[in-house]
Amino acid sequence: MTLLAPTGSGQPPPAPPAARSGRRRLLPYLLLLPGAAWLLIFFGVPLVQLAAASLYDPSGSLSTGYAMTWAVSNYPDVLQAYWPQFLRSFGYAGLALVLALLLGYPLAYAIAQKAGRWNNLLLVCVVAPMFTSFLVRTLAWKTILSDNGALVGLLRDVHLLAPDGRLLATPFAVVLGLTYNFLPFLVLPLYASLERLDHRLLEAATDLYASPVQAFRRVTLPLSMPGLVAGTLLFFIPASGDYINAELLGTPNEYMIGNVIDSAFLVRLDYPQGAALSFLLMAAILAVVFGYLRRAGTEEVV
Amino acid sequence: MARETPAGDLRLANLTKRFGVFTAVDDLSLTIGQGSFFALLGASGCGKTTTLRMIAGLEEPTSGQVLLGDRDITRLRPYKRPVNTVFQSYALFPHLSIFENVAFGLRRRGIRSVDDEVTRMLSLVQLDGYGNRRPAQLSGGQQQRVALARALINRPQVLLLDEPLGALDLKLRRQMQIELKRIQTEVGITFVHVTHDQEEAMTMADTVAVMNAGRIEQLGAPADIYEFPATAFVANFLGQSNLLAGEATGVGGGDVAVTAHGTRFSVPAGRSRAEHGPVHLGVRPEKLILVGSADQVPAGHQHVTGIVTDASYVGVSTQYLVRTGWGTELSVFAANSGTSARVAVGSEAVAYWDPRHAFLLPRDAADTDRTSPVLDEPVGASS
C-alpha cells in the first residue's frame, strides 16, 4: 500500500514527460484558434476579395459582371480623381486631433490627478455619450448647429458670425463633429497613463528647479507618452476614414475619402474604384502610423 | 567644493501648519546653523516631515516664517529656493537615465555643460559607470545614492533628507549613515535630516531636535539629550529609561531629595529639572548595575531591591527585567564584558546606580512609573 499509494488512489498515472510537454506546447495555439479563425474568415478573406476587386476591369458593372484584368491603373486613376478628398481627410482628421488634444489632455489630467473622489463619475461622463448611437449624436449636432438654432442666433447677435453666416455645412462643423465623436478614444488611454503618474515625481521636479511648465514638459509629458501615442492613434485612424460627419454636418465640398468610398460601393456601384480607394486609404494610414511610431518610439505603445 | 556665496543660517520662526482642525506643526521656532547636520527626530505623525516640506516649499505654512540668512523664503516657489530634497521614496524619474536624473537640476537652470559635474557627483556617491542605466535597474541603496547625487549636484544651501534610509535594510542603512556623514563633511552644506530612528539621528547629527505632536520637546547635541533628557517623552523616545514616580522635597547640600515608593533618593541639583512636587526619577538601563545583595552596593550609590523576572541575552549585553517590591519592572542592561556573572531569573537582586547618573524630571501628578519596553527601536518607529 505504501509504495502503491500514489497510483492506487484511483487517479490515472501521470502522463510520460514527453507527451505532457507536447500538449503544453500545443496549448497556446489551441487558445489562438478561435480568434485566428475569426480574423481569417472575416478579415483575411474579405481583404483578399477586396484586393482582387481593386484590380478588376473598370469598364465592368454589377449587371454585366467584372472581368479580372489586373487593372493596376485603377490606382493612379482614383488617386487622380480623388486626391482632394484624400488630402481633406487627413487635413480634417489632423485638425480634429489637435483640437481633441487641446480639450482632451487637460481633461484627462484633471480627471486623473485632480478629481479625487469625483474621478469615476467624470470618467462615466466621458464614456456616457457612447451609450447612444454615433449617428444619433451626430444628428444632434446637426440640430445644435442648424441655421435657425439658438447657437447660430447667439453668434450672429454678438457678431461673431455674419448675419447670413452659418455653422452647419461648413468645414468647421465637420471638424467639430470629428473632434466630438472620437474624443473619448483619446481621453481614455491618456487617462490611464496619467492616472499612474506619481505626484511625488512632480514634487521632485519642482524641487529641482523645474517651473510648472518645465515640470510638465520634462516629467508629465514623457511619462504620459504611452497613453498619448495610443490615444492619438485610436483617434486619428477612425477619424481619417470617417464619412458620417462629412455626410451629416457637411456638404459635398467637405466630403472626405470615406464618403467617396461609400458612394463608390453603394451609389455608383463602381467596385474596382471603391476597392482601390480603400486600399489606398489603408496604405496611407499605415504610412502615417508607422512614420509616427518611428518618431514617438515603438516602445511607448507596448 | 563648498560654495563661496554666503548661505547663512536656516531659521524657522513661529512656523505653524494646520490641516483643517489638525495642527501638524505648532508654533515651531528654531535656528539651524550653516553647515551643520541637523536631525528632526520623532515618531510618525509628529510633524517632522511637514516641517521639512515647508522648508522645501512643497507645503505652505499656515503662519510663521522660513528664513535663509536674512532672506524670507516663506512664500518663495519651491523651484526658486536654494534648497533640495532627498525624498523618502527617492522619486527618481523613471523615464530618464541615471545621468539625466542627476543632471536634471543643472539643466533646468540652463547649465549646458553638465558632463564633468555629473561624472564627479556619480563618483562621489560611488556610482561611476552607472550613468546609462535606468532607475529601475538599480538596487534600493543605489537608487538612494542617485537621489542624493541628484540633490547635491545643485549645491543647495540646505539639503533636506526625508527618511532617506528608511527603505534600506539594516546593514546598508549603517553603511549609508557613515557615507552621508562623510559626504556632508566633504561638501559642507547644511543637512536637515528627518528620521524616526533615534540611532540614526544620534550617529549622524550634530544637533538633534526631538519632536512630539508638532512641537520640539528638546533640542541639543545627541549626548546631551541622551544623558539629560528634558521630558519623559524624550527620555523614552531617545533610548530607554526607567522613570520612577516620586515627590521632590527641596534642595539640600546641592542635592534634590526625592521620595519614591517609600524610599528616599537624591539627585544632584544640576541634574534636576524640578525641585518640588511630583517628579520622575530617571535612570538609564545601562547605568543600573545588578548585584545579589544590598551589602555589595558601594558607598554613595543608591539602590532598589527586586526579583529578576526576565533575562534576554543579546550578545553585547544581557537585558534584565527586575520587578520591584511595588510591582514596577525596571530594565537593566549589563554589558557582557565578562567581569560579572549572569543573574538567574527568579533570584532576588539589587539594582544600584550612581546618583550622578540619575536625572529628575517634572511629572504630571497623575503619571506613574514608566519603563520603556525592551525594544530595539522606539515605539512608533514604523512609519
UniProtKB/TrEMBL annotation, chain A:
It is found in: Cell membrane. The keyword Translocase does not apply. CDD domains: TM_PBP2. Its main location: membrane. PROSITE patterns: ABC_TM1. PANTHER family: INNER MEMBRANE ABC TRANSPORTER PERMEASE PROTEIN YDCU-RELATED, INNER MEMBRANE ABC TRANSPORTER PERMEASE PROTEIN YDCU-RELATED-RELATED. This is ABC transporter permease. It comes from Micromonospora inaquosa. The lineage of its organism: Bacteria, Bacillati, Actinomycetota, Actinomycetes, Micromonosporales.
TrEMBL record, chain B:
GO terms for molecular function: ABC-type putrescine transporter activity; ATP binding; ATP hydrolysis activity. Keywords: ATP-binding, Cell membrane, Membrane, Nucleotide-binding, Translocase, Transport. Residues 10-238 form the ABC transporter domain. InterPro entries: AAA+_ATPase (IPR003593), ABC_SmlMolc_Importer (IPR050093), ABC_transporter-like_ATP-bd (IPR003439), ABC_transporter-like_CS (IPR017871), Mo/tungstate-bd_C_term_dom (IPR008995), P-loop_NTPase (IPR027417), PotA_ATP-bd (IPR017879), Transp-assoc_OB_typ2 (IPR013611). It holds the Pfam family ABC_tran. One of its GO terms (cellular component) is ATP-binding cassette (ABC) transporter complex. This is Spermidine/putrescine ABC transporter ATP-binding protein. It comes from Micromonospora inaquosa. The lineage of its organism: Bacteria, Bacillati, Actinomycetota, Actinomycetes, Micromonosporales.
